[in-house]
Amino acid sequence: MGIRDIMKYGLKDMNLIFFSDIDGTIINNNSFCYGNNIKIIKELLEAGHYVIFNSSKTFYEIDHILKSENLSIPFICETGGGVYCPRGFCGDNLNKRSDYDIIFESAKTSDFHMKIKSILLEEFKDEVLFFDDMSLKMKEKFSGLSAKDLERASMRDFSIPFKWHTVNKKLNKLKSILHDFQLTVIKGGRFFHICSNFDKYSAMQHILSFMNHNFPQQIFKTVGIGDSSNDIEMLNKTDYKCIVQSINNISLIEGLSNKKFILSTTHAPEGWQECIENVFNQIRRTYG
Predict the structure, then answer these.
(1) Is pTM beyond 0.85 here?
(2) Mind spelling out the 3-state secondary structure of the chain?
(3) Is residue 114 a contact partner of residue 101, using CB atoms and an 8 Å limit?
(4) pLDDT digits (tens, 9 = 90+) for 149-203
(5) Do you find a cis peptide bond into 269, omega within 30 degrees of 0?
(6) What confidence tens digit (pLDDT) does each residue in 227-283 have?
(7) How far apart are CA 201 and CA 54, in angstroms?
């Protein structure tokens, strides 16, 4: 990494914490192309910033990405279900999972999967299609994945993905039933997900608490980057809100409490880079 790359993203007396979705944000939803984004992530890290994946992807999918791209960063999986950091990044007294320290893990789906599934299939048999009930061909069609990629996406710990085939009025009834079990529904880019009461922002708080406690002298600004409605809570609570253009933008924009955000003119992966450049331009205009 050259000095020019570091200076490109260097800021005086300020460090940025980027919380970024992956699908439709860092990578294209159809081609799964990263473009230049892995290179940019490494440049941001070299410049002293922090990049944290905040995604509906599983632990196994994100672990595979990090190892394949030689990245060592914290991440949030399954829309807030699990929060992990590289060994030693968050201290020495945490529980371990594979090569990571566990910051937070929600209730496992194994605690409620079968009970909830039987209730919902009885009540919504024509509306709900669970991911694990799909044929291999259907899984490949709806996820856009195959082989090992599909296998890693299927290994979910904290959420139950499903397709929903009816109007929102019935969806409200579904949410009401789940509420009685202290569960909720989150809409992702491709699937709905049943999970405990967590979201991308509640997971972010675990990391921000650690950062503020361990680096009290550093000035942090947060940047949220996403493309769909399950990014609403994350973007609502970040200093700089970035939206990568996609077909999922409408519900995300409608859910933002503050309409002051950066919207890329291009889709992923180029849209993510565009958001990064716009954040730095905005910060330099404001702080010099």
Answers:
(1) yes
(2) CCHHHHHHCCCCCCEEEEEECCECCCECCCCCCCCCHHHHHHHHHHCCCEEEEECCCCHHHHHHHHHHCCCCCCEEEHHHCEEEEECECCECCCCEECCEEEEEECCCHHHCHHHHHHHHHHHCCCCEEEHHHCCHHHHHHHHCCCHHHHHHHHCCCCEEEEEECCCHHHHHHHHHHHHCCCEEEEECCCCEEEEECCCHHHHHHHHHHHHHHHCCCCCEEEEEEECCHHHHHHHHCCCEEEECCCCCHHHHHHHCCCCCCEECCCCCCHHHHHHHHHHHHHHHHHHC
(3) no
(4) 999 999 999 999 999 887 677 888 899 999 999 899 988 778 899 999 889 999 9
(5) yes
(6) 999 999 999 999 999 999 999 999 999 999 988 999 999 999 999 999 999 999 999
(7) 9
Instruction: Report how far apart the first and last C-alpha atoms of the chain are (Å, whole number).
Output: 25
Instruction: Find where tokens 């893990």 sit.
Output: 105
Q: Per the structure block, which two tokens stand in for 243?
A: 């939206």
What strands lie across the sheet with 262-263, from one edge to the other? 96-97, 100-105, 82-86, 75-77, 50-54, 15-20, 220-226, 240-243, 262-263
Identify which of 94, 124, 110, 47 has the alpha carbon closest to the alpha carbon of residue 210: 94
Cα 93-212-44 angle, rounded to 5 deg: 95
